[in-house]
Specification:
Chain lengths: 403, 403
């Protein structure tokens, strides 16, 4: 049995990002940049007004009140191409470019306009240069706006758009084949024998892969015979990752390892010191990385979160492949831990002062999907962790969106 | 100017969930349940073994070691329909149903099998009922597995699958029309005049709407004339929400309010006491809810996060429409605040002891998209908040995935 961190490190070390593609910026939400987005514009392109008001010469507002002639009007997107002389000003709106000669904005609330006379009286001044957005304040051509490895969100897409970038180069979405094995499982709604259970692993993992930015292929359920397993595994050719569930423990009926060994499986490791999920297999099958998850649905999803999701993140070219833990206070006491790293389903809430409280679910049986669905995250207990009182600080893996 | 909380409450009060549709469970990731998912199975359907080992009568292992005859083998998905007599046991694998007569599992590590003789010697016993998953441990028919209003994640999909539910009834995705206005903006890659800027609001909001579970329609940019605005707004008919950007402040060129007033706009409010984003318009246009965001890209996205996203959540039928703040420690001092609620872009990181540290960006100009893209969240400063030292606790809105 190898430790959790070592297992994850070995998985990540074995993987590298998939190829790239070019997509329209408007299709790039959630995609990972394979080339930096660099600015093609000076932004703002000129000195602009940050307010609605009057653009004027600071030297004209030394003694107040003063009345200036209003010689033009400059909306956002407009312009006034002449030089504004002393004693004059222009009416300007937020985003309007400052005409030559002007250097300061007085907001309209501090003025009294006489439209008939074409004048405005400045009642309260501004410091020199006030309410002016300097050209290039946001970025200049060639600046890296969003860097390689970042998963694009709405804010990044907005910034790329402002930089006049309509196309971006991203890693393509990793393709993940999902193979559930076992004579005992059927898909929801399909005919089901008296001793069978409904397969939750396939649909749940397909959703988890999608939420992590991959494209899942849900393969037909493999019965427990070597030939079917081999045929389905071959059918996974062309994927970036083969995820299997079940058939990874030590019993006679655990065929995945032995069946695939005959047709090109090279195992790196197959047991980790954690709970839930001791049987976790990692290796490659005919050159394709393969992660063998346990058959119990909770174990399968927890192992996906701890190993499969980082693997997908690495394949997707994203820079944050780690698993992030958040400190929380225990809502109830825990006994000392044994040699396996433990991941306990826990209810998460914030107390009145905003502290995150994690209360492990009473029963941690790895077949109970209901408690996994209701939990907010996992409390991590390191191997041989001593008993902990309620209120003690623990590390929590908060479930990510879509998981 | 109305307070932020009141503005959000008025928006939410004016909205109700859109209609429903039935989707395949495998297509339901991120969708919001409109009807509860109830179990159609007893899970586990029978008492099952939780381990690989031997199913036996507890009364047979009073004195150890004891040798029992192995009369059958029960894999997961298999069964043994006879009653196991005293002095006998069955080889059983994880997930295998306990045959009649047996009540306890001894794991294989605690036994010594003699396959030739068809016997096994029990070296170490188990308490009565050990390693047995009772029928119905996870759920029983009719149990609510996932409740109305929950946005489905992979775990929920797994649980619904285990309950034998292949279809779910969800709210359809809210349709959101996005209308950017202003003579000064062009889309990325399109021809652009010397005083124009590239529109980031449309693409950024479309992505933000998608990330929040809506379906965006990005409408052509409306020039600053009333007729075009009215035509485009009419073109938004059939959407669940009309989002506009720009044209909401007080200058002459701010036409959205006045142009739409002529053709069916009913305003609820149009100014809120916050920064960035004072001009925020909410009302309805020809019976369709309408949210008018400011034109500055940072203001537009921040206001979308604080008002548009909760609105979408309400339209989508999800139960968590609120905005959640996380306590953090200030990384640098802040001056006292004025009467407007302030949202400061901030870098977020955790210090060595795991505390969340929020350090507001030096410049908070509402045109600077680069600082919004780089920030991790927003520090909230309530109206008239006193000056705060570095280390003081503040509320942070951590940016959600996809934003």
């Amino acid at each position: 049995m190898i430790p959790v961190e070592e297992a994850r490190a070995r998985i990540l070390a074995a993987l590298s990002p998939v190829g790239v593609e070019t997509v329209a910026l408007s299709e790039s939400l959630g995609r990972v940049l394979a080339q930096p987005v660099t600015a093609r514009r000076l932004q703002p392109p000129k000195d602009l007004s940050a307010m609605d008001g009057y653009a004027l010469r600071f030297e004209d507002i030394g003694t107040l009140p003063v009345t200036l002639s209003v010689i033009a009007e400059v909306p956002a997107g407009g312009s006034f191409e002449e030089t504004v002389p002393a004693g004059a000003c222009v009416r300007i709106f937020t985003g309007g470019p400052l005409p030559d000669g002007t250097d300061t904005i007085v907001i309209q609330e501090n003025t009294d306009a006489d439209e008939a006379a074409g004048t405005v009286t400045i009642l309260e001044g501004s410091p020199e240069g006030r309410h002016v957005r300097r050209a290039g304040l946001d970025f200049a051509p060639g600046d890296i706006l969003v860097d390689t490895g970042k998963r694009l969100g709405a804010r990044d897409i907005g910034l790329a758009a402002a930089g006049n970038v309509p196309w971006v180069t991203v890693y393509r979405k990793p393709r993940v084949a999902i193979l559930s094995t076992g004579d005992e499982i059927a898909l929801p709604g399909d005919p089901i024998g008296p001793n069978q259970i409904v397969s939750s692993n396939g649909p749940a993992l397909a959703a988890a892969v999608t939420a992590a930015g991959g494209v899942p292929t849900l393969m037909p359920i493999a019965p427990d015979d070597a030939e079917s397993l081999q045929a389905l595994a071959r059918n996974a050719a062309g994927h970036d990752l083969l995820l299997t569930t079940g058939g990874a423990s030590v019993g006679k009926h655990d065929l995945v390892g032995s069946a695939l060994a005959e047709t090109g499986l090279e195992l790196d490791f197959w047991k980790i010191a954690m709970r839930p999920g001791k049987p976790l297999m990692f290796g490659s099958f005919a050159g394709m990385p393969m992660l063998g998850l346990p058959g119990n649905p909770v174990s399968a999803l927890v192992c996906f979160l701890l190993f499969g999701r980082p693997a997908l993140t690495r394949l997707a070219g994203a820079s944050n492949t780690g698993v992030t833990f958040t400190p929380a206070r225990l809502g109830s006491a825990l006994p000392e831990n044994d040699r396996r790293e433990d991941y306990l389903r826990a209810d998460l809430h914030r107390d009145e002062s905003g502290h995150l409280i994690a209360t492990p679910t009473q029963r941690q049986d790895s077949s109970m999907m209901s408690t996994l669905s209701q939990a907010g995250g996992l409390v991590r207990r390191l191997p041989h962790a001593p008993a902990a009182e309620a209120g003690a600080t623990v590390d929590v893996l908060v479930f990510p969106d879509g998981f």
